[in-house]
Every structure is written in structure tokens, then in C-alpha cells.
Design goal:
Chains A, B: It comes from Chitinophaga japonensis. Two copies of one chain form a homodimer. By secondary structure, chain A is an all-alpha fold. Helices cover 81% and strands 0% of the residues of chain A. In chain A, helix 1 crosses helix 2, helix 2 packs across helix 3 and helix 5 runs antiparallel to helix 7. Chain B binds a DNA duplex through helix 1 and helix 3.
Chain lengths: 199, 199
DNA sequence: TTCAGACTAAAAATATTTATTAGTCGAAAA
DNA sequence: TTTTCGACTAATAAATATTTTTAGTCTGAA
């Protein structure tokens, strides 16, 4: 294997600097020149590596999202019962959200007004969440922890879990009670869990 | 008892017309002149009966909110088990929301940007919801349907229920899937219910 | 006591100018 | 050939000035 292609290194540099800047100043207030300066290159050089600003932002979000979900997946896979997996999922998600509050805010709030992007990213994000949840639920059905929900019911359950959690998340963020988040989420999950477990 | 005081009649007329207009055009796009014209009075007359526009809007919201919650309370009180009460609560709330989508939108979305009002109304609205839920839960503890949750746990449960439901509501409204609302809510409530019922 | 018309001050909408910034291009450096 | 840059433009956003609308007041009439 040869050394990493030079252009891949630079692309990755650009992404790293862009990530920092977006996190600090948000999407709108970070200019292409800011990014170029941070990388130590001219502005037009960025356009040699990326089509435009949106492509950079997309790449940043995709990368960060992947990190989040890799971490979550890792935590989830450590547990061996579906119930514990679900608890791990929530705990892990909370931790990730706190760790990346700024970028999360960008995705959740700033981007919320930037219609084109919003839908894509937010939906994509939720889909991944729902996917993970669904796989956990499916696992629970297999292990016999949960009753024999059919595919449609599992979809609905995953949908409900994602959005119920988000409802609580939003309320706590709006009242800036992030510190109560864990406790309340634990309680919510334990209730939901017991609910799912019945028949 | 004498005939209803004349000014009470007019105040009520103003409220009725204002309600219609707010429902049709929203808070911002309804002017005091519009209301006055609809009532068939001059604009300044409105100020004889109400301090300002906000007071009118407040009164409209309070009145509508009372109707909603009276209807919900009525439906809830018909049931005699806590579980059925909770189901009735959700079903009834869904129906009320659909019935008043427009005004609900005003409260939920338009007012969301109108900071001063937002907090007051939204919080007030949620409080009432949470109060009803809490009383249902308390009832369930008394009847033995639910385990012996203490006061703090009941508060938390009510908070969770309100916001979990709102999360799902919001998602469905955003995707304009109001028709799936009942089905999904039923499912959510049944899950939550079973969760609450355990120990 | 109840109302209206004329009024004001504040806010909202509009138009206009100015400043930034995303993205292009052709040419130079590596 | 691959990578970089400086100079340029067109579009977007920010700032400013201008007009219109509208909430709320005041005086006085019925």
C-alpha cells in the first residue's frame, strides 16, 4: 500500500478546519475565505477539491454523523440483551448530543431555516436513528425479549421511539435543562421498554 | 337574574369575530380594524372593551383552550379505569386538535416566533395538559392500576407523556400525516400505558 | 355610558444603496 | 499534468432610507 494520496490528505484537512469553524461560528458565518485561510491555501483552491460550500458542509455533517452513529453502534453492540441495548442507545445518544452541542445546534436550529438542506439532513439523521432502533427491536423479537411484532409494527415503534424521545429532548433543550436529560430519558426509556416488553 | 349585561354581550361578540378572523388569517394578519368592521363598530370601540390586541388574543386563546379541555375532561370522566381515561385523553385531544387545526397552528407555529406570547400560552397550554395527565395518573395509583409512584415520579411521567406525545404530533404534522395520527398515537399510548403499569 | 373620527407614534413592509462573499477563469508554479 | 493563486463577476446579504400600515390615544358627540 502506498502513502495516502496527497489530495485525500488535503481534502481531509479542509474538512477538519471546516468542521472547527462551523462548530465555532455556524454555517452562515463561516466564509470560504475563512476556511481557506485556516487550511493555509487560497480560496479558489477549495474549489479544486470541493464543488462548492454545500458539498463541504454535507461532507462535514456526514462525517460527524458517522462518528456519532459509530460510537452509538459500538456502545449498543457491547450489550447482549435488547433491553440493555436500547438503554445503551439512549445513554450513548445523549452523550453524543452533549459532546457536539454546537454542531448539533447547527443541524437542528440554524439549518432549520435553510430549507433545502434541512429536510435532507434532518431526515437522513432521523432515518439512521430509526434504523438503529429498528434493528435493536428486531433483535429483541428474536431473543424473545419482545413479543412477536410484525414488520409494520416495528416500523411504527421505531418511529414512535425516535419522535417521543425528540419531543422530550426538545422540551429540555428549550428550557435549557440539559442536565436533567439523562435522568428523564432513562425514565422514559424504562417506561417505553416495559411497554414494549408486554404483549 | 337580570338580562345579560349589554357590555358582556358585546365583549363576547368581539371575541367571536376575533376568533373567526384569527382562525382564518392568523394573529399578525388580522388588524384591529378588521375585527371592528366584523363586529360592526368603530376601531376605538374595541379599546373601550379590551385593553389592547394582546388582551383580545389572550381571551380568544383562553376561551378556546377552555373548550378543548372541557371536552377532553368530559370524555375522560366518562371512563372509569385510569388506563381507559388515558386512552380517552389522547383520543379526545387528537380530535380537538383536528377540529381546531387553524387556531392550533396559530398557537403552535405563528406564535412560536412571537416570543412574549409564545412562552406564556404554550407553557400554559402544556401545563393544563400535564395537569390533566397527572390527575389521571394519580387516579391510577389510587385504583391500584399503576404502581405506587411518588409525587416526583408522577410529575416526571406527566412531563414525559406530554412531550413524547408532542414529539410524535409534531413529526406527523410536519409530514402532514394527520390521518395517521390516531393510529400511531393509540399505539404510543398503549406502549406507554403498559410501561407505566409495570412496577 | 357608549361610540366614532381624526390623530400620533411605532412598527412593518418596500425600495435603494452598499458591502460581502460564493463561485469562475486564465495563467503561473510545482 | 497536477496544484495553486490573484483578479474578476454575479449573486447574496447587510445596512439605510422611505413609505405604508396599524396599534393605540384623545376629544367630543350621542
Amino acid at each position: 500500500m502506498t502513502t495516502l494520496a496527497k489530495d485525500e490528505v488535503i481534502k481531509s484537512d479542509i474538512l477538519d478546519e471546516a468542521t472547527k469553524l462551523f462548530r465555532h461560528y455556524g454555517l452562515q458565518k463561516t466564509t470560504m475565505e475563512d476556511i481557506a485561510k485556516a487550511v493555509g491555501k487560497g480560496k479558489s483552491t477549495l474549489y479544486y477539491y470541493y464543488k462548492n460550500k454545500e458539498e463541504i458542509f454535507d461532507a462535514v455533517i456526514r462525517k460527524e454523523k458517522n462518528i456519532i452513529f459509530r460510537n452509538i453502534q459500538e456502545d449498543v453492540s457491547k450489550e447482549d440483551s435488547a433491553v440493555k441495548k436500547l438503554e445503551a442507545f439512549t445513554r450513548s445518544k445523549m452523550r453524543e448530543i452533549k459532546r457536539m452541542t454546537t454542531l448539533y445546534q447547527v443541524v437542528v436550529s440554524e439549518v432549520r431555516s435553510c430549507n433545502e438542506l434541512e429536510l435532507g439532513i434532518r431526515r437522513n439523521y432521523d432515518c439512521t436513528e430509526a434504523e438503529i432502533l429498528k434493528s435493536i427491536l428486531q433483535y429483541g423479537v428474536i431473543t424473545g425479549e419482545f413479543p412477536n411484532y410484525d414488520q409494520q409494527e416495528l416500523d411504527m415503534l421505531a418511529f414512535l421511539l425516535v419522535n417521543a424521545q425528540r419531543g422530550v429532548e426538545t422540551a429540555l433543550i428549550m428550557e435549557s435543562k440539559l442536565d436533567e436529560m439523562s435522568e428523564k430519558m432513562d425514565f422514559l426509556v424504562s417506561v417505553l421498554m416495559n411497554g414494549i416488553r408486554r404483549s
